[in-house]
Amino acid sequence: MRVIAGKARGMRLTAPRGTTTRPTSDRVKEALFSLLDSAGRLDGMRVLDLFAGSGSLGIEALSRGAEQVTFIEKDRHALESLRLNLGHTGFSDRAEVLPFDCLQALERLVRQKVCFDLILLDPPYQAGLHQKVIELAGSALLAADGLVVAEAAARTPLPERIGPCNRSDRRIYGDTALELYTMEQRHAP
């Protein structure tokens, strides 16, 4: 695992011990950030990295110009890797690490009335959390022009609409799908 582009380009990242996390492949990460870069979606953005694991996605966002990233991860080994990676890349000062269960952390952020321009999530595919997390994050934490990017199993598409979010794009890379959601556009009467 490495940082692909930006200020920390080429830096190696530490992966957590054990099998409780599944790091995003460099191929999928590169495709995701090419999409975001081409849309001008990273400069100065506030990013939420859910199920952060080693922090690879959020660190890539920081390297490419995100202003701040909030990482949510509960696994002890993943947290250890995440903190090491933030220190190694020099991004600790632009990162917040919440060592909680995802839903607990989301509820905490909702109470704090925090808003994010980009929400990245890569939950365990079989956990059935995609819809619940997208609905909660989209309805309470996503900026009006924000974007939710969910990594999911390619063979099981997520719904076109989840809560206030509509799927705007779906890209498949082998067994992995990137599903992009934006807020439903409300038109004035």
Automatic annotation (TrEMBL):
> Which parts pass through the membrane?
none
Cited InterPro entries: DNA_methylase_N6_adenine_CS, RNA_MeTrfase_RsmD, SAM-dependent_MTases_sf
Q: Report any one BP term from Gene Ontology.
A: rRNA methylation
Pfam families attached to this UniProt entry: Cons_hypoth95 (PF03602)
CDD domains in UniProt: AdoMet_MTases (cd02440)
What keywords sit in the KW lines?
Methyltransferase, Transferase
Q: Write out the GO MF terms.
A: methyltransferase activity; nucleic acid binding
Q: Does the keyword Methyltransferase apply?
A: yes
The region annotated as signal peptide is: none
- Identify this protein by name: Methyltransferase
Its source organism is Trichlorobacter lovleyi (strain ATCC BAA-1151 / DSM 17278 / SZ)
Lineage of producing organism: Bacteria, Pseudomonadati, Thermodesulfobacteriota, Desulfuromonadia, Geobacterales
